[in-house]
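Why should sequence recovery work at all? Because a backbone constrains its sequence more than one might expect. Tight turns favour small or flexible residues, buried strands favour hydrophobic ones, and helices have their own preferences. The token representation captures these environments compactly. In the example below, the structure is given first.
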């Protein structure tokens, strides 16, 4: 066996040594699927002499792709020639080169969710059968889902019944049709189209397909369980000539069904390729036995699944802990306290993740962490590229590249104000519609369209003209600086120097820095290339996430906050899953949808299996939703793993343990289960005279504060105290001179 494969276990090594023909690696979480995939690529190059530029690997995020390349580079030469990307990035690249075969003009732009929404709002305004209650978001979801199934508006009309409940099917189909023609008129495509159009291209232009096939002789797909029909078709067509396709996945981790992911794709792989070799990996290297046992026990409750074996390699480890807080604030404080405690014991913050079901849950956690002086990185939510000022400057860039981009024009024509009002804009738009042209073109002809204020519109046209010329002349960063200046955007922000505007200016500067860095990595890259890459950065990829409120750069060492969906494929030594409650996890909506509960259970499974060493589950008895406090029940998923976790109080002291074997609640401190009380047995580092979490103390210099965590004994005892006036301090109690209050 080669040295390379010696770093794998025998089952992994077999899969990694797979050479030609289709293969499926089917295995549970943390079993080394991604690792095996990387070694397989290295093995192809090293042992079989395959050229790196003939290898494609498709991952779930751009970040994952970059990491995979880095890891491959450590194993073999030539990794920078590998084609590693997401489905979407691959689509852009292909359509940029060959899009004209499917009617896309050079310089087409990519619309994001917000752009889609802006366009749909406009369309709904004139859509027969639609009314003020027609929800553009809902229509957007329908269109995206149709596209992920490769459905045309006609297909939607014929087949869409099952998942259109909120509006009439014919109205949705007509909305889709109009949306599509408006997209084309604006020379724009949306995210889903990146795949739909690539598939169309593959189907209709065999020569192009063949060219791409020469670049993708060996195809790899990670997280195959979450592919949708369009991605499936993309892979199938690409692999149709050489049939060297290796996919890895875990049906128990399929969590994107709501976006059209089809678990059937992985289950059908063997039907599609009857000669496919199937490899199974049965050892989990990631999690302790205690964590893995909980995960395994949970997932067997799903009925639609393939049985799998997954055994731990690691030892038992500490128990899974569960804390039920009186409310969501106390729940977040629990997280902050235990993070602080871990930090005091030497845990790096980047090794800790807090996972939740919905983005809205991040706010309280973030606040508690901030009070405790712990930096946090929020993945998703409002990412850097979602900020208004960033989108504005990029919209100017888009319009400069593609004068037909009416959505971009509407976004920025009034920022800064130029005296072109709503009425004028409506007239210009109407004229553009009638003449089958863009609003910008209408601006050029404003003299004949507007009675008043035509000069303002022609001025705007001239401004955009100069920007269009600049696109060709400048580097990306040069262009952005130029645009900020000539559009008056910078002046607008400087005119009123409040903290919000200052922070927007800082963000814009950050974008220019990002463009500079990008240009360094992409020699000869144009403004348009930069724009593509910026458009493709999903919030998960967002490398420049800042704190939600304020602009302090998040240091390297920060706790990661993200949704369970975004955590897929990742791992952290310490994981908190918050909000393990009925109505949240499983979510309320899931319970009324067929298969919804099982999808939520898979999501919980994904969450649990992110933990390497320590897993905390938390829930709140009361929670604020939509401004009302409602009581909340523990999630059914907790009862499904009964016996495999310990319930603790807010200080992490054991309250009791549910033992599956006895089926009863066993309390370590009979007679005292109230969360606030101290257990009779010293289950944690508490001792007579020692400080306890939650206690109030006073320090001669820092003033009053609250003990967040205690560790060690006797002379070595340390306390972590949060002083409102001085922040969080870790002190040796022996020298700290604290007074109890
Ligand atoms: P997921 O289903 O969550 O995507 P996965 O199956 O892709 O998980 P990996 O992320 O590849 O699993 O591996 C999980 C962890 O186990 C990683 O830290 C990896 O380095 C480690 N690991 C996997 N196989 C081995 C091995 N043979 N020896 C040592 N460590 C391993
Ligand atoms: Mg993986």
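From this structural description, the recovered sequence reads:
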């Amino acid at each position: 066996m080669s040295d390379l494969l010696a770093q794998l276990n025998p089952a992994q090594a077999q899969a990694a040594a797979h050479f030609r023909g289709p293969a499926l690696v089917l295995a549970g979480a943390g079993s080394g699927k991604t690792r095996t995939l990387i070694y397989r690529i290295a093995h192809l190059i090293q042992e079989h002499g395959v050229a790196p530029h003939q290898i494609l690997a498709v991952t779930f995020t751009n970040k994952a792709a970059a990491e995979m390349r880095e890891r491959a580079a450590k194993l073999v030469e030539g990794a920078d020639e590998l084609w590693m990307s997401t489905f979407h990035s691959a689509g852009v690249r292909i359509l940029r080169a060959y899009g004209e075969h499917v009617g896309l003009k050079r310089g087409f732009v990519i619309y994001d969710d917000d752009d889609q929404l802006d366009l749909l709002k406009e369309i709904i305004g004139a859509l027969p059968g639609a009314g003020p209650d027609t929800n553009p978001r809902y229509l957007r979801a329908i269109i995206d889902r149709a596209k992920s199934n490769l459905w045309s508006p006609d297909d939607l009309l014929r087949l869409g019944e099952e998942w259109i409940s909120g509006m009439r099917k014919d109205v949705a189909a007509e909305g889709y049709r109009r949306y599509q023609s408006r997209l084309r008129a604006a020379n724009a495509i949306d995210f889903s189209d990146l795949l739909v159009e690539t598939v169309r291209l593959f189907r209709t232009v065999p020569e192009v397909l063949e060219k791409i096939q020469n670049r993708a002789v060996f195809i790899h797909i990670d997280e195959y369980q979450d592919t949708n029909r369009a991605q499936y078709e993309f892979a199938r067509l690409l692999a149709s000539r050489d049939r060297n396709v290796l996919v890895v996945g875990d049906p128990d981790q399929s969590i994107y069904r709501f976006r059209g992911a089809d678990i059937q794709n992985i289950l059908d792989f063997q039907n599609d390729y009857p000669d496919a070799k199937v490899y199974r990996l049965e050892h989990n290297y990631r999690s302790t036995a205690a964590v893995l046992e909980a995960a395994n026990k949970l997932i067997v409750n799903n009925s639609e699944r393939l049985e799998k074996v997954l055994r731990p390699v690691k030892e038992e480890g500490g128990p899974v802990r569960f804390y039920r807080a009186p409310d969501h604030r106390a729940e977040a404080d629990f997280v902050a306290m235990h993070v602080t405690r871990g930090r005091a014991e030497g845990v790096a913050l980047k090794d800790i993740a807090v996972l939740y079901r919905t983005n809205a849950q991040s706010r309280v956690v973030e606040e508690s962490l901030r009070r405790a002086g712990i930096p946090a990185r929020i993945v998703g939510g409002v990412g850097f590229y979602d900020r208004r000022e960033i989108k504005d400057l990029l919209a100017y860039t888009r319009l400069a590249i593609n004068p037909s981009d009416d959505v971009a024009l509407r976004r920025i024509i009034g920022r800064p104000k130029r005296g072109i009002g709503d009425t004028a804009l409506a007239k210009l738009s109407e004229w553009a519609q009638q003449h089958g042209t863009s609003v910008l073109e209408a601006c050029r002809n404003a003299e004949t369209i507007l009675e008043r204020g035509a000069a303002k519109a022609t001025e705007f046209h001239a401004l955009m003209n100069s920007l269009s010329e600049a696109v060709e002349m400048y580097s990306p960063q040069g262009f952005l600086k130029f645009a900020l200046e000539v559009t008056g955007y910078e002046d607008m922000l400087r005119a009123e120097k409040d903290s919000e505007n200052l922070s927007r200016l800082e963000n814009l500067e950050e974008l220019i820095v990002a463009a500079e860095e990008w240009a360094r990595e992409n020699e000869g890259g144009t403004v348009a290339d930069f724009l593509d890459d910026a458009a493709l950065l999903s919030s998960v990829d967002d490398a420049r996430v800042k704190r939600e409120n304020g602009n302090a750069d998040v240091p390297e060492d920060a706790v990661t906050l993200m949704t369970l969906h975004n955590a897929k494929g990742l791992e952290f030594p310490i994981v908190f899953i918050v909000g393990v409650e009925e109505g949240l996890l499983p979510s309320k909506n899931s319970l009324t949808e067929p298969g919804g509960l099982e999808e939520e259970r898979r999501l919980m499974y994904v969450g649990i299996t992110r933990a390497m060493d320590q897993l905390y589950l938390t829930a709140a008895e009361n929670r604020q939703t939509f401004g009302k406090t409602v009581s909340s029940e523990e999630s059914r998923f907790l009862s499904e793993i009964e016996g495999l976790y310990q319930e603790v109080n807010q200080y992490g002291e054991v309250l009791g343990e549910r033992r599956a074997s006895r089926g009863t609640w066993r309390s370590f401190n009979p007679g005292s289960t109230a969360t606030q009380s101290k257990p009779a047995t010293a289950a944690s580092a508490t001792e007579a005279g020692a400080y306890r979490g939650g206690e109030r103390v006073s320090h001669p210099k820092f003033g009053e504060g609250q003990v967040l965590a205690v560790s060690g004994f006797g002379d070595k005892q340390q306390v972590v105290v949060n002083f409102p006036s001085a922040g969080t301090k870790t002190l040796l109690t022996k020298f700290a001179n604290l007074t109890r209050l």
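A few observations help interpret the result. Residues 695-740 form one domain.
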